[in-house]
Structure prediction request, 133 residues.
Amino acid sequence: MTTKLAQLGQAAARLRETCARAALAPFVMLACSPAMAALPTMPAPGDAIGGGTVAQGDWLGTMGAWIKAGLTILVLVLAALGFVYVLMGALGKWRAYSMGRAEIGDLKEYFVMGAVLAVFLVVMGTYAFETLA
Prediction:
């Protein structure tokens, strides 16, 4: 008799667990379904690498446009860093000249070299932008 009661108790526990899983099934189905929100589309940052426009839904062209924008920002940052280094060097050379450790010829040479380097940075940045366009 006790074995029959134990079997009946186990059957009731299995039935409870099965009912709980069945009651949880609609929630799991709703939680796993995709969201139906109308998300905005992200616009491309500009033209594609070849210079053409990026079509709607063209993820490869969009990635190329983002890479082009990133490279443009990198070139501008490197050019600005070059200008800062030239300016710091010019101030250091001016300080050495004012303390008597450098000649006027050294100062002029550094300023000419700094101007040439600044022009070179601008030309190379422009060439990089035109190559990507």
Remarks:
- Residues 2-132 form one domain.
- The radius of gyration is 35 Å.
- Residues 31 and 43 are 30 Å apart (CA to CA).
- The mean pLDDT is 84.
